From TrEMBL, chain A:
It comes from Kribbella jejuensis. This is Multiple sugar transport system substrate-binding protein. PANTHER family: ARABINOSE-BINDING PROTEIN-RELATED (PTHR43649), POLYGALACTURONAN_RHAMNOGALACTURONAN-BINDING PROTEIN YTCQ (PTHR43649:SF33). It comes from the Bacteria. SUPFAM superfamilies: Periplasmic binding protein-like II. Residues 1-17 form the signal peptide. InterPro entries: Bact_solute-bd_prot1 (IPR050490), SBP (IPR006059). Keywords: Cell membrane, Lipoprotein, Membrane, Palmitate, Signal, Sugar transport, Transport.
Length: 437, 298
């Protein structure tokens, strides 16, 4: 018996030792390498398998005897969960795709490498001057740190079914059209040819809807919903803003616009099938439409305006954890991605214009070649727009604002609460801002 | 104690050690840790900061999502538990009959339980789509009014419950086992006494399977209180807070969408509130079970 027990204990100890060894050796940022070997820089994206394959192919051309680049094979779904668990385990890759809000939050927590000086005093063409200025401004924290660099710009507008507009005898949406015209068009297109609503605008009705509504008030010369998404001092709903909310609530009430709660996850397919005549969306849909040809003739127009062209502002980028093993090697790969990789990836999949302006040509060339001229025009107009508004708070308490929006703002849009409840909702957000600061 | 007895005791400890260690590592420690985190402000990125009962105070006083989450959870339990018990028992009684092909019927009734939950829920989401879904297409063809289903604040929760009932085969199997354990001589004696089907159901079947019914009430209530997959996949809590049940709220606070910082301390506080609710519901159900369950002692 005693021998058996000893054997069991021995085997268990060996198994435990094996497990511990395996755990100690596995995963992680994986940077570094042996004392003499090349440094490995790991990269993680949220892209599709096809785009990742194109990125991997492009990264294979990165030549540096001292650096090896490893693109982590990772399914694109649930990127947020993946990032959260890797962050908590302190196993983030050396370079990972991140949103502006993630970069702001992680940088303020001291989790990311600060590239501000490096990009400001960059060698040759790779320096701050060559990036879209507004993107660089937004990627800086209050104290001037940059935990990553913007890589691609997201621009937004209105995708429209040109066939449905023509059939209804309506002029096609184009730069300079107004919010009133958009709602009038939506009313005429609703309940026709299998389309229930004339306009599906998740950006206007979701938890981030109050920010999108800023486009109306700012365009009309009023105040935005908040003065700053990164470091807000106040939220506001002035007369112009209230006017915009009132018009949207009326359009939802008469059935022209899809109400809050409408499941917009399938809207791209519905639009392509001709069942959604107009939808708010990003330029990235163009890449999908290029491969899965919609049945309809479609176009992409800038957002409507009241007086001044105004658009949403959003950029994504690449971040680096503070514990990356070799910052110089990581920055070299970061530079290579921003300057070279997009030229190889975007012609096949034109998802977004690069924030690094010299790399933008390949994106616009690809769209022009694919005869997506309305997308080219709208993206260019958006990038040049004088007035932009943020898409959501990047603060720690942003999710609490989301709950307040669900409980207060969305019922106002649905007509379940009166428009006069808007100031109370704003007061609650200002309470959070006060607490947060 | 003899020498051999001492060895046996050691061996016994050794054999139960994996279970005890497993429980300690995977249940005991997380339980203690989550209680500690419930008393802290913790985002998973930086060290926890002790805030005492601050998370609980925020839950009950200022969080606009908490009370709607409790209401949604209560509504789901009240809707789902009775329906699953009635439907499960009805299906079990049907499958307890003797007819050709009964085994096939039993298999078909249980089949949804073994199918991957995410796949079936996703299929239901397509079927419940108001524009292109199968349900509305059928209703439309029949000239009946259609519904927004998951996109209507009123219909969203009943639609979620409908999808949950798709897995009622699990309840059916347990009831079927209970029905088959009822002594047939009781029915034979009742028949001799002139009892009808309803009388036999209420005076023999129900009392005899009442201990299993109690088990099912507890199991189904506990499961309903912890519902996550269906509302996550079908509605993600919407429209508004109509299907934002407590488990979903906990998940969204602990693992928020990309770009938002996790509130793991706050989510842990919610977990403990849910834990207390589950314990309270089970305790109440057990306490009053003697009023309606049959045992040899009463």
């Amino acid at each position: 018996m005693r021998i058996v027990v000893k054997r069991i204990m021995g085997v268990t100890a060996l198994a435990c030792a094996g497990l511990l060894t395996a755990t100690a050796c596995s995963g992680g940022s994986g940077s570094g390498g042996s004392g003499n070997g090349p440094v490995t820089v790991t990269v993680m994206t949220w892209e599709s398998a096809d785009t990742n394959a194109a990125i991997k192919k492009a990264l294979a051309d990165f030549k540096d005897d001292n650096i090896k680049v490893d693109l982590l094979e990772s399914p694109s779904g649930q990127y947020g969960d993946k990032l959260a668990s890797l962050t908590q385990a302190k196993k983030l890759p050396d370079l990972f795709w991140c949103g502006n809000d993630t970069e702001q939050q992680y940088t303020s927590q001291g989790l990311l490498v600060d590239w501000a000086d490096k990009i400001k005093n960059g060698d040759g063409d790779f320096n701050a001057d060559k990036f879209v200025p507004s993107a660089m401004d937004n990627w800086k924290t209050a104290d001037g740190q940059m935990g990553g660099l913007p890589s691609l710009m997201n621009t937004y507008g209105v995708w429209y079914n040109a066939d449905a507009f023509t059939a209804a005898g309506l002029p096609l949406p184009k730069a300079g059209w107004t919010w009133d015209e958009m709602y009038a068009d939506a009313a005429k297109l609703a309940n026709k040819n299998g389309a229930k609503y004339g306009l599906v605008a998740d950006q206007l009705t979701s938890a981030d809807g109050p920010f999108t509504m800023s486009m109306y008030s700012v365009s009309a010369g009023g105040a935005p919903f908040t003065d700053n998404v990164n470091h807000p001092t106040k939220a506001e709903a002035d007369d112009k803003y209230t006017e915009g909310v009132t018009k949207l609530a009326a359009a939802i009430k008469n059935g022209s616009v899809a109400p809050p709660g409408y499941d917009a996850s399938n809207v791209q397919s519905l639009f392509a099938a001709g069942k959604v005549p107009m939808t708010f969306g990003g330029q990235w849909l163009a890449a999908g439409f290029q491969t899965d040809k919609p049945k309809i003739k479609y176009g992409f127009a800038p957002f409507p305006q009241v007086q001044t062209p105004t658009t949403l502002y959003d950029s994504v980028g690449i971040c680096t954890p503070q514990y990356t093993k070799d910052q110089d090697a990581t920055f070299k790969v970061l530079e290579y991605i921003n300057t070279k990789v997009w030229d190889a990836v975007l012609p096949a999949s034109p998802v977004a214009p690069p924030a690094y302006t010299p790399a933008q040509a390949s994106y616009f060339d690809a769209l022009t070649k694919a005869q997506q001229s309305t997308v080219v025009d709208t993206v260019k107009a958006d990038l040049a727009a004088e007035k932009t508004v943020g898409v959501r708070f990047t603060t720690q308490w942003a999710s609490q604002v989301g709950d307040l929006t669900t409980a207060n703002y969305q019922p106002i849009l649905s007509g379940k609460k009166p428009i006069t409840d808007l100031p109370a909702y704003i007061d609650k957000i200002n309470g959070l801002i006060k607490q947060g600061s | 104690m003899s020498r051999n007895a001492g060895s046996d005791v050691k061996a016994a400890y050794l054999f139960i050690a994996p279970a005890v260690i497993g429980f300690g590592v995977f249940v005991g420690y997380p339980l203690i840790r989550s209680f500690y985190l419930a008393l802290t402000k913790y985002n998973g990125l930086t060290d926890p900061v002790f805030v005492g009962l601050g998370n609980f105070r925020r839950l009950f006083t200022t969080d606009p999502a908490f009370w709607p989450a409790l209401r949604a959870t209560g509504y789901l339990v009240l809707l789902y538990v009775p329906l699953s018990l009635v439907l499960g028992l009805a299906l079990a009684m049907f499958c307890n009959q003797r007819f050709a092909g009964v085994r096939v019927v039993r298999t078909l009734a249980y089949l949804p339980v073994v199918l991957p939950a995410v796949a079936t829920i996703t299929l239901w989401k397509f079927m419940l789509d108001p524009q292109v879904g199968l349900l509305n297409t059928i209703l439309d063809r029949l000239g009946l009014p259609t519904s927004l289903w998951l996109q209507s604040p009123k219909m969203a929760m009943p639609s979620v419950v409908l999808v949950m009932l798709w897995g009622v085969g699990g309840t059916m199997i347990i009831f079927l086992a209970a029905l088959q354990s009822v002594p047939t001589e009781l029915y034979e004696a009742a028949k001799v006494d002139g009892a009808g089907p309803w009388s036999m159901f209420f005076r023999i079947t129900m009392p005899m399977i009442s201990p299993i019914m109690l088990l099912q009430v507890i199991l189904q209530t506990t499961a309903a209180l912890q519902t996550f997959n269906q509302p996550k996949i079908l509605t993600n809590g919407g429209p508004g807070f109509s299907t934002n049940v407590l488990m979903l709220s906990i998940y969204n606070n602990g693992f928020p969408t990309l770009g938002r910082i996790p509130q793991l301390g706050y989510a842990s506080a919610q977990v403990w509130v849910l834990f207390v609710i589950i314990i309270a519901v089970i305790a109440l159900t057990a306490k009053f079970s003697s009023l309606w369950t049959y045992s040899d002692n009463n």
